[in-house]
Amino acid sequence: MVGTDEWPRVDFRPTAVNTETGATVLWNCDSGIGLDAAVASSCSVPGVFPPVAFEGHHYIDVPRRPFGGDLIKSKSLDAIVFVGLILPILANNNEQKTELEKAAGGRLRTVTITGGPRVASISEDLLDHSVRVRAVQVGLEDGRQAVAAVKALLR
Q1: Is it true that the peptide bond before 46 is cis, omega within 30 degrees of 0?
Q2: Which whole-number Å values give the CA distances from 9 to 29, 78, 108, 132, in the listed order?
Q3: pLDDT tens across 58-110, in order?
Q4: Are 115 and 143 a contacting pair, CB within 8 Å?
Q5: Phi then psi for 128, rounded to 5 degrees?
Q6: What proportions of the chain, in percent to the nearest 5, are helix, strand and coil?
Q7: pTM
Q8: C-alpha–C-alpha distance, residues 114 and 3, integer Å
Q9: Quick count: other Cβ atoms within 10 Å of Cβ 81?
Q10: How far apart, in whole angstroms, are the C-alpha atoms of residue 40 and residue 54?
Q11: Sequence-separated (6 or more) residues with CB below 8 Å from residue 136
Q12: Whole-angstrom Cα distance, residue 20 to residue 85?
């Protein structure tokens, strides 16, 4: 759905979890994986969207423990954009957001995108494929609302 395998010119690093080892992976343009597959692995919900295979391993989106800490300290990062819905059905996202902000410890600039007011209209149907068009529209609206904060972060 990203529409390209080419990485953007900015340092974009989606995360996923290696199903064989449990290790969190921070993908980037040097990882050897295409952008489509990296983003898909970061969105792969076990039992709903298939794991993404890459170099003999499988990657999915699951709660990451520890999400921050060593992962953040071990990478050369200037800023972090957290994108995750904060809904009761996705309770772990709120925990991950809190852990991320704590791990950044004021050392990294952070922006959080957790969904605008229309997210509630699709929150009960997050895994229903018939809601995709409406969900994309809601996501695009949220993205437009987040543009200013993300641009400020990149300056």
Answers
A1: no
A2: 9, 15, 20, 28
A3: 999 876 554 555 556 656 677 777 776 655 555 555 666 677 667 667 667 77
A4: no
A5: -90, 115
A6: 40, 15, 45
A7: 0.60
A8: 23
A9: 16
A10: 12
A11: none
A12: 26
